[in-house]
Amino acid sequence: MRKISAVLISLLFSGTVQAQEPQTVKVDDSTQTRSVTLRLASLVEPGETLDWGDFIRVERPFGAWTLLCDWRPSRNKRICSTEQTVNAGNSGLIWRIAIDSEHKPIVLFVLPADLDRQVGLRLSFSGLEKSITGSEWTCNGQSCMSAFPFSDFVQAAILNSKEMQFSFRLLAKDAAPTEVRALASMEGFTTALEAAAKDPFGKYVPLKKQEKAADLTSAAGRNAAPVVLNTPQSTTDVPAKQSDKVEQKSPPQSAVPAKVTRKQSRNIVPRDGLY
Questions:
Q1: DSSP H or E run through 20
Q2: CATH number at residue 189
Q3: I need a surface site. Which of 62, 147, 158, 212 has the fewest CB within 10 A?
Q4: pLDDT tens digit sequence for 171-209
Q5: Is 0.85 surpassed by the pTM of this model?
Q6: In which element (H, E) is residue 93 found?
Q7: Reduced to 3 DSSP states, what percent helix, strand and coil does the chain have, rounded to the nearest 5?
Q8: Domain interval for residue 138
Q9: In whole angstroms, what is the distance from residue 54 CA to residue 73 CA?
Q10: Terminal C-alpha separation, the chain
Q11: How do beta strands 178-185 and 163-170 pair?
């Protein structure tokens, strides 16, 4: 198993998610209504108005996973998350590794709004099973969400898994419930986590050979001295006869721009503007 440090995990990010619709939970034959809010780490404060261009988001695919990194240039801060969309027929789910507003790593799940919360979501990984049911879900008209801490043995078991199995039930008004089973690949997961900590925007991704050659050719073209052409003074000038001697004088040495030598210290091209 590849070890991922707690510091690396703490770098993960996703936006703020809030469920507006109250959730009803049965407790000892009585009904209790409560509003549950999932607050995740964010670079934008509540009510803050961003200046133009002061927010950059970069998405990078890593196998079955996508690394999402946000950056605030004015603060020189960034936070990332990694997520996967799992399709199962006409349904599916999104699950994401992120950090909450207290900077603790969590696993966040987003399922369809017609989820049967009493059955909930069952996860199977590394020979373990975990269920998320009932009051652990927060639903609105668009989706149902739940999360649990990404730490201790759960974190170790997920990192050591080659695949994850999910099962849940969807309710329908005029039809029988639909059982959904989905399989998620962990390919690219640890690589995405490492990139989040060491190279979130791909600054140090090696350039391909053809890209290097094109860059050097372009640089050579920019460094070349301009060609000076002697043209007639006006459109009424008559071309010289064969017996006439036409002498083209070279411009003075001082008129020829000096060749500028550019230092090729790094193979980093305009992507440097992101840092």
A1: none
A2: 2.60.40.1880
A3: 212
A4: 998 889 999 999 999 999 999 999 998 999 998 898 888
A5: no
A6: strand 91-99
A7: 15, 35, 45
A8: 6-198
A9: 6
A10: 32
A11: antiparallel
